[in-house]
Design brief:
Elements lengths: L20 H4 L5 H10 L8 E5 L2 H4 L3 H13 L5 E5 L10 H10 L3 E3 L8 H8 L5 H9 L5 E6 L2 E6 L4 H7 L4 H14 L4 H8 L3
Helix pairs in contact: 2-4, 9-10
């Protein structure tokens, strides 16, 4: 049902994406699909990013946690980088995510959060080792313009001087944006997507 022998090879593709939202609602099949995805990786030595969007969803499943632990040990020597992405600061209080972030993810990009300095949210940032001044700075950053970066060399807020065209492409994350993208792709195809997307955004 989920994978079969007719699955096409993706060896020549620069990017692969798997939509797992429906899968996660069927817990009994998660271990098998995790195993399939792990075996499909291409360990060629080429620089590769493995990104888990909304990582807290995956970390609820022991099979995913086990695979991520294995990946963190194996892939760092294979020129892979593992990105765990979450948009809710409360996710950082989950002990599994904290352990992965603190022990294995020395570089962290923190998005602006006006609620960062509130009593209910502050503890999530303190768990990552952020001082009060840094938390206050995160609360004052501009969405889709600024980031706060933690890395072994230090930490600082950085400003991204994005032009309107870049914001229209990189900052389009709302459900209505995704629906519009699908519509434009259906009408104009991938080769003409960019120009029609910018027109849709009024640029």
């Amino acid at each position: 049902r989920f994978y079969d022998a007719g699955l096409a090879s993706t060896d020549d593709h620069l990017a692969e994406a798997y939509e797992l939202q429906g899968l996660l609602s069927t817990p009994r099949v998660v271990p098998g699909v995790v195993s399939v995805l792990a075996h499909r990786r291409q360990l060629t030595g080429a620089a590769t990013i493995l990104m888990l969007h909304e990582a807290s969803r995956y970390l609820k499943f022991p099979s995913f946690v086990k695979q991520i632990d294995e990946d963190l040990r194996l892939l760092r020597d294979k020129n892979w980088s593992l990105w765990l992405e979450t948009q809710d600061a409360d996710d950082l209080t989950d002990t599994t995510i904290q352990r992965l972030l603190l022990n294995n993810c020395p570089t962290r990009f923190l998005l602006p959060n006006p609620q960062a300095n509130t009593p209910a949210i502050r503890s999530a940032y303190e768990a990552l080792g952020l001082r009060q001044a840094a938390i206050e700075q995160i609360a004052q950053l501009t969405p889709k313009r600024d980031l706060y970066v933690q890395c072994p060399e230090g930490e600082a807020a950085i400003h991204l001087p994005l032009v309107p065209e870049a914001i229209a492409i990189c900052g389009a994350s709302r459900p209505e944006d995704h629906a519009a993208m699908d519509r434009i792709l259906d009408q104009h195809g991938p080769n003409n997507f960019a120009i029609h997307w910018l027109e849709y955004k009024g640029l």
